[in-house]
Amino acid sequence: MKYTGFPGLEAAHHWISTSFFFVYIFGVFSNGTLLLLIKEDHNLHEPMYYFLTMLAATELGLTLTTMPSVMGLLLLDHREIGNVACFSQAFFIHSVSFVECGVLLAMAYDHFIAICYPLRYTSILTNTRVVKIGLVVLTRGFVSVVPPILPLYFFSYCPSCVLSHAFCLHQGIIKLACADATFNRLYLVVLVV
User: Fold this and answer.
1) Model-level pTM?
2) How many domains does one find in the chain?
3) In whole angstroms, how large is the CA radius of gyration of the chain?
């Protein structure tokens, strides 16, 4: 499979890569610093900061999943990716995105408890409950993406396998399949709704 990158902006790829590189470095550094600070400072070992840790970890995972291929395309004009690598990248992009949605929901729940039940906050959101919430969010994020991604390994693909992005997304891959992919399209619609 091949990437197109940013259609119409091929001449500006080097300029775009500079800004993407700084955003990439800033994202990795800031999320890594946040994870390190929360780990080292024992005053921050509270549910709100655990959820911030989960959010920083998902952002770091999403950045590390997408940006290397984007930077390879922009800086080195590396446009090819193997099918298995592409499917794996799509799996991790979508899984981490689902986990991020779950973490944001958990943070909303944390805020709800803090506002509505401030005196019972510590008894409601214990460390054990936060770990359980985190495991449910993580499991849901990774398991729910398996059914649409797994069949991608078995589809046959048209000879002109050109993705319309700088990284692999399920929607882009499914458009390249020569087989009937109705289940995959419908499953994602149902999953998102």
Assistant:
1) 0.84
2) 1
3) 20
